[in-house]
Design a protein that fits this description.
Length: 343
């Protein structure tokens, strides 16, 4: 502030001194001009020299001197020089203390947290398992609660000879169980379906015990003759063991068959017993034609009929001449009653 005031004072003083010097110079030049050339510039002409700058100093019209007239000299105003003030010490300006406005603190910018990039775990590639061909399990059939059928014997009528008044039949055990037969009955009807007669097959033709695979043939009379007669067979049996079966039955060990001079077909054979002693031992003989059809059935007791274990017996049987010519093969089943001893 003080420096600025001092510079301004010096500037004012310099300007005043220059103005005085210019004024003195102009007065001197004017006086010389008037003395040397008293010619007055015509009115309207342009002022020359200092008159242009200071029109108040130079008269606008200078009178022309007349002869015989004296003129008082024009007194030039004396320029009074005002002494320049001495350098007075400028009063020290008391600096006005402008209160500094309290600076409101700029609120600190709360830095926005830069989200930290969460490193995503690299997904583990689980290999897709190759589907294994699963074998479809075979469904187990659900057992249905049904009554187990009782094993049955196969009974059939081989032929009916109404002219001679008899019929032939077979009984076979095709099951895996041992079956005990009590009796075999039959019913005969005529051609109109009316009841003709009834009867029972002699038990001499079959054993009480039918083992698996056993087969017998039987012969029975019709009780009369006629045409168109039919026979219906019924067998009574049970799978219950009623008595101790023998370990092994006697069996035909050897046989021969041939036509006789009487026209019959005779079979001779030997029975061997490898099991327990058998009493009332019989041989059921079945005669078949070339097609396997039963053409005759009969039975004969062995001689002796009581065959001890390890012993043998013989038998003989004949088919009538009416069927002898058709016989092509024979079958046997040996059976008897178990006995602890033979008398």
């Amino acid at each position: 502030m003080q420096t600025c005031l001092l510079v301004r004072a010096v500037h004012l003083i310099s300007c005043s001194a220059v103005a005085v010097l210019l004024s003195l110079g102009c007065a001197i030049n004017t006086e010389r001009s008037l003395t040397a050339n008293p010619t007055v510039s015509p009115i309207g002409s342009q002022p020359q020299g200092l008159s242009e700058l200071y029109p108040t100093v130079m008269p606008s019209t200078v009178p022309t001197p007349t002869e015989g007239v004296s003129y008082a000299p024009t007194v030039m105003p004396t320029l009074t020089t005002t002494p320049l003030p001495t350098n007075t010490a400028l009063p020290s300006a008391t600096p006005t203390v402008t209160p500094t406005p309290s600076v409101t603190p700029t609120p600190s910018a709360i830095p926005t947290p830069t989200p930290t990039a969460t490193k995503m775990p690299i997904p583990t590639v689980t290999p897709t398992p190759t589907p294994t061909a699963t074998r479809t399990p075979t469904p187990t059939p659900t057992a249905t609660a049904t009554q187990t059928p009782v094993p049955s014997l196969t009974v059939s009528v081989a032929q009916v000879n109404g002219q001679e008044g008899y019929f032939l039949g077979t009984v076979e055990n095709r099951t895996s169980a041992e079956l005990y037969v009590s009796d075999i009955t039959f019913v005969v009807r005529d051609a109109q379906g009316k009841l003709y007669t009834t009867g029972e097959v002699s038990s001499s033709y079959y054993p009480d015990l039918f083992k698996p695979g056993d087969k017998v043939g039987f012969y029975s009379k019709l009780g009369g003759t006629g045409f168109g007669l039919t026979v219906q067979l019924t067998v009574q049996y049970t799978p219950t063991v009623l008595f101790l079966p023998d370990a092994a039955r006697p069996a035909v060990q050897e046989y021969s068959g041939k036509r006789t001079t009487m026209g019959t077909y005779r079979v001779d054979g030997i029975v061997y017993n490898s099991g327990v002693a058998s009493s009332f031992t019989k041989v059921n003989v079945q005669y078949y034609d070339q097609n396997g059809v039963l053409v005759w059935a009969d039975y004969e007791y062995t001689t002796p009929d009581c065959v001890r274990q390890g012993a043998s017996a013989v038998f003989q049987d004949e088919a009538p001449s009416s069927v002898a010519g058709r016989v092509a093969g024979v079958g046997f089943l040996v059976f008897g009653s178990q006995s602890s001893s033979c008398s």
